[in-house]
TrEMBL record:
<dbReference type="InterPro" id="IPR049470">
    <property type="entry name" value="TRM61_C"/>
</dbReference>
<keyword id="KW-0489">Methyltransferase</keyword>
<dbReference type="InterPro" id="IPR029063">
    <property type="entry name" value="SAM-dependent_MTases_sf"/>
</dbReference>
<protein>
    <submittedName>
        <fullName>Methyltransferase type 11</fullName>
    </submittedName>
</protein>
<feature type="region of interest" description="Disordered">
    <location>
        <begin position="1"/>
        <end position="26"/>
    </location>
</feature>
<keyword id="KW-0949">S-adenosyl-L-methionine</keyword>
<dbReference type="InterPro" id="IPR014816">
    <property type="entry name" value="tRNA_MeTrfase_Gcd14"/>
</dbReference>
<feature type="domain" description="tRNA (adenine(58)-N(1))-methyltransferase catalytic subunit TRM61 C-terminal">
    <location>
        <begin position="97"/>
        <end position="243"/>
    </location>
</feature>
<dbReference type="GO" id="GO:0160107">
    <property type="term" value="F:tRNA (adenine(58)-N1)-methyltransferase activity"/>
</dbReference>
<feature type="compositionally biased region" description="Acidic residues">
    <location>
        <begin position="8"/>
        <end position="22"/>
    </location>
</feature>
<dbReference type="Pfam" id="PF08704">
    <property type="entry name" value="GCD14"/>
</dbReference>
<dbReference type="GO" id="GO:0030488">
    <property type="term" value="P:tRNA methylation"/>
</dbReference>
<dbReference type="GO" id="GO:0031515">
    <property type="term" value="C:tRNA (m1A) methyltransferase complex"/>
</dbReference>
<keyword id="KW-0808">Transferase</keyword>
<keyword id="KW-0819">tRNA processing</keyword>
């Protein structure tokens, strides 16, 4: 179970009911009361300062559940952006708007096979799985990989996301050629994988790389061109929040909404 409050923070909690059933059997749901949200599995017991709540095995979105002290929670179906708030965090998770760009620019869809690294928190991997892809994702930190596996179960995608512990660069030789439709990279050494993208990708497949810094972004773009990938392009991801008040409407004066750089290329 994880709790999320309105400030966007995320806390891990140890209340998850561990068992061997897969996501297909147990679809996690959100329990919502005001600005409190808990992501729980059916059958779990949730302890809060409002009392203990037993989540029925057959819980459904739209239900209302009560704690033993009589406080009500509404049951809501999990949606993609909830992963960002409720997964236990390790490596900095990709924000929903950048995930939207990755999925939109690469066309990830049902039946796609995706190679992803590094897994980190696993928000991107889980989001691609929810879009219908089968994902193989590498995480070099064994503790992070363990947390990511738990997150995949919490997100209901542990049956389609294979979290492998290891350095993706050292595993490339073990991967079959032309076995991926899309490669997504969020690592400092992404260029080393991009150099091998033409062997790993099917004809017409895409590579998408998220880089926080311009230096690594440039290295990725140059490597993609040297590897003869087509349509290499880089975009800064930046958004302005709009404010509407009695005086008028304008972009927020809060700090600029820059997150990083996304580089895309295609195997042709
Ligand atoms: C920024 S996080 C990725 C976050 C992820 N995209 C998400 O949405 O949750 C980067 C992760 O890559 C891992 N990493 C870095 N280099 C790696 C490599 N060569 N192979 C596997 N994992 C790597 C790091 O340990 C870290 O957990």
């Amino acid at each position: 179970m994880t709790e999320h409050d309105s400030d966007g923070g995320s806390d891990a909690d140890s209340g998850t009911d561990e068992d061997a059933e897969t996501a297909a059997d147990r679809v996690p749901v959100l329990l919502v009361r005001g600005d409190r949200e808990y992501l729980v599995e059916p059958g779990a017991e949730m302890g809060t300062d409002l009392g203990v709540l037993e989540v029925p095995e057959d819980v459904q979105p739209g239900d209302t559940l009560e704690t033993h002290l009589g406080d009500e929670f509404h049951v809501r179906r999990l949606r993609g952006p909830d992963l960002f708030h409720h997964f236990e965090r390790t490596g900095a998770p990709m924000v929903p708007r950048d995930i939207g760009l990755v999925i939109g620019e690469t066309g990830i869809a049902r039946g796609d096979r995706v190679l992803d690294a590094g897994t980190g928190t696993g928000v991107l991997a889980a989001s691609m799985a929810r879009a219908g892809a089968d994902v193989v994702t590498y995480e070099q930190d064994p503790d992070f990989a363990d947390v990511a596996r738990e997150n995949m179960a919490l997100g209901g995608v542990d049956d389609v996301v294979d979290v492998r512990t290891g350095d993706v660069c050292e595993e490339l030789e073990t991967l079959e050629s032309s076995s991926f439709d899309v490669i997504t990279l969020d690592t400092a050494d992404a260029a080393d994988v991009v150099a091998h993208a033409p062997e790993l990708l099917v004809d017409g497949g895409f590579v998408a790389v998220y880089s926080p810094f311009i230096e690594s972004t440039r290295e990725v773009a140059e490597t993609a061109r040297e590897a003869d990938l087509a349509n290499v392009r880089t975009r800064e991801t930046i958004q302005r929040e709009m404010e509407f008040d009695d005086r008028g409407s304008r972009p927020s004066t809060a700090p600029v909404g820059h997150t990083g750089y996304l580089t895309f290329a295609r195997n042709e």
